[in-house]
């Protein structure tokens, strides 16, 4: 009850702000979104001196604790108050990472607002999400040219109104590149650190062949760190427990379930995954190979083949690693040694791939801030808002 009261007070305080202070609004579903937003917010507020509003549903969101005179943050919760806030939102542009916007309880405002989606992954738009997950946005800040091409193709096929698309980029990749370090040297299989980091779901590595894969890797002499997706612990914890029951005390095995931990990323020599976007981050950001177990693709719709474009998460797999079928796991150790054989050649190839497929490397935050300022300036020209701003400034 106390949290609800606080959320109501925060909403009232936000609503009372004059419209000119709400030209650029961010909405965060959880504190995890802050990590994607913060470089852009810093660019807007600290470099461009733009006033920014940050709405969040998470009372523990780091965005609520910032010392920034150009940033005003409000926790509106995730219940009725949030629904009301969205329904009557007054803003110039509202930036979010929420897929399926306007399809469930959170709808577009009755007021004129420009809604901008910011990608926080390099995956394609048409297979891993619902076919219409992005249809209700006015603008999309794209991580790479593949996302831009896929959005345009859907608009063309269905006769949808063209969205404003911007070259953004992918800060997570920049962060990994800036913080990467050389993994410990290895001279034999016993020195090789393998990071097993699959996605979650019924048809992913742990659920389909996790125990068999770990058996093969341990028997080959590798060091194995299992880093399951946090959703796996919630949905099918037994697939983790079966492995740890057998190998929990084994000197070659380590379980890592601490969110935010990074040593397992930086100190490993190779990642094993399936269709997780983490594989692209690892391969292209840390310049280390990825072994993909060829489980069924993560597809949330049957429509995606109509686009006639291979999803990027499929296209890139043999460019940053290799693919092994679940019924050929015995070949994984040899494939791992093959992938690790020529690290310098791998780095050159990955750098070329990254330059081709990721926008604004090293400058994504500036590009995003510029796009949001442009959208806010365009919103200033809307007659009703322009009149309101004029009145507030009188």
Can you give a write-up of this model?
It is a single chain. With 394 residues, this protein is an alpha/beta fold. The protein folds into 2 domains: 2-170 and 360-393, Rossmann fold (3-Layer(aba) Sandwich); 182-357, Glycogen Phosphorylase B (Rossmann fold), CATH 3.40.50.2000. The chain has 15 helices and 13 strands. β8 (193-196), α6 (205-220) and β9 (223-226) form a beta-alpha-beta unit. The longest helix is centred in the first third of the chain and has 17 residues, at 31-47. The mean pLDDT is 94.
Assign an overall shape. Answer: globular
CATH class of the largest domain: Alpha Beta
Q: How much is the average pLDDT?
A: 94
Contiguous low-pLDDT stretches (5 residues minimum) are none
Please report the distance between the alpha carbons of the first and last residues: 40 Å
The CATH homology group name of the largest domain: 3-Deoxy-D-manno-octulosonic-acid transferase, N-terminal domain
Task: Please give the order of strands in the largest beta sheet.
Answer: 3-2-1-4-5-6-7
- CATH architecture designation of the largest domain: 3-Layer(aba) Sandwich
Indicate the structural class. alpha/beta
User: Treating each run of at least 4 consecutive H or I residues as one helix, how many helices?
Assistant: 15
Number of separate structural domains: 2
Number of strands: 13
Strand content: 5-15%
Rg computed from alpha carbons, rounded to a whole number of angstroms: 23 Å
| Biggest sheet record | 7 strands, parallel
